[in-house]
Amino acid sequence: MGNRVDAVLAGLPDVRAWQEPLYRDLHQHPELSHREHRTAALVAERLADAGLDVHTGIGGTGVVGVLHNGDGPRVLLRADMDALPVTEATGLPYASAEPGVMHACGHDVHVTCLLGATELLARATQHWSGTLVALFQPAEEVGDGARGMVDDGLADLVGPVDVALAQHVGPAPAGMLGVHSGPFLSAADSMRITVYGRGGHGSMPQATVDPVVLAAMIVIRLQTIVSREIAPTETVVLTVGSIRSGMKSNVIGDHAVLELNLRTYDPAVRTAVLDAIRRIVVAECQASDSPKDPEFELYDSFPLTVNDDDVTARVHQAFTEFFGAQVQTIGQATASEDFSDIPAAFGAPYTYWAIGGIDPQKYRTAAEADRVSIDIPVNHSPGFAPEIQPTLDVGTQALVVAALSWL
């Protein structure tokens, strides 16, 4: 396969010339989930220029490009497009121009790499046969973008798919690729809990049921679920990320809202933790003499990402042949994705790998000459800033190499 890969990637210098400016443009103009209109328009234009059949508006702002090139396997490559409600603090000359919105997760890298890989494959059709499906998904960050495209008839529009492939940039050294077989990314659930008290004057707490104290007791008790109710061999993360109650220092409000996030790898464990959360909240409300039952809202649920063993082995071998020592086997990650909803709709196996995007040397300090600082910004942080190169080159090459191990 090496000669074919080299032949397709021979066009990378030409692609790089427009990729880097496009990446800066996407980074500077991030769009939140379900609002990726500008990004989708740029993607559709680039795909059409490359000669693909382009379908837009799938699941809202989703875009799919299809390139039929004779008989052979049908390979789907996916990138997500949405940004996050984060205020950028990277200091980059191409930092976000949208107040309070930032590509803090690297989806601008994903879009740019997939567009580059698609153009390279489209320019070198004499070196492969089959069908390429380039899918650009909205709303990954809220967990319903993939389902939205599926519910909008994605499978009927595209036809059968033999394999689905995707990648994600993260805070590993730029140029590195990480592969993992089996359960890789955790399932995730967010829950909004409203608990009720009885409001009153801050000087007379005895006449109230203080929802702030109630919420605090709930937070403390929730920490015992993982440590005391779940086996140590299970991977579970439970985080309370937000508590809101009251408007003034001397006024005790009448309710509090907690928002929490759960990560699991086992459906039975997930059920057990969700049941424990409800049990603890109800019990604490009763203990505080809450005047009203608590309310629970489950939202932003992400499926488990389980990489197919055979597909992963095939991609791993292809990566090793091309990238050599840059490829590593990595462990599970408690981040979450909705990518698996797409191959599930096609009944297709899949694999999902990681690419590095950080120059660790930038985060060394004078006192840390022999170790990398733990202050490297991770995904979703205001300082997350992938290196343009070699990140774009490696991400583009990885998609091409993986696709050609089937096409």
Helix and strand topology:
Blueprint: H1 2-9, H2 12-28, H3 37-49, E1 53-58, E2 62-69, E3 74-80, H4 107-123, E4 130-137, H5 145-151, H6 154-158, E5 163-173, E6 177-179, E7 182-185, E8 187-196, E9 200-201, H7 211-228, E10 236-245, E11 251-252, E12 255-264, H8 267-287, E13 295-302, E14 305-307, H9 309-323, E15 327-329, H10 341-346, E16 350-358, H11 391-404
Parallel strand pairs: 3-4, 3-5, 5-16, 6-15
Antiparallel strand pairs: 1-2, 2-4, 6-16, 7-14, 8-12, 8-13, 9-11, 10-12
Helix pairs in contact: 1-11, 2-4, 4-11, 7-8
Structure write-up:
Mn(2+) binds at residues 105, 107, 141, 168. Residues 190-284 form the Peptidase M20 dimerisation domain. InterPro entries: Amidohydrolase, Bact_exopeptidase_dim_dom, Peptidase_M20, Peptidase_M20_dimer. Keywords: Hydrolase, Manganese, Metal-binding. This is Amidohydrolase. Residues 369-373 have low confidence and may be disordered. The protein has 407 residues and is of the alpha/beta class. It has 2 domains: 1-184 and 304-405, Aminopeptidase; 187-302, Alpha-Beta Plaits. The protein has helices at 2-9, 12-28, 37-49, 107-123, 145-151, 154-158, 211-228, 267-287, 309-323, 341-346, 391-404, and strands spanning 53-58, 62-69, 74-80, 130-137, 163-173, 177-179, 182-185, 187-196, 200-201, 236-245, 251-252, 255-264, 295-302, 305-307, 327-329, 350-358. The strands form 4 sheets. The chain has an 8-stranded mixed sheet, sandwiched between helices. A 4-stranded antiparallel sheet has the order 10-12-8-13, with helices on one face. The termini are close together.
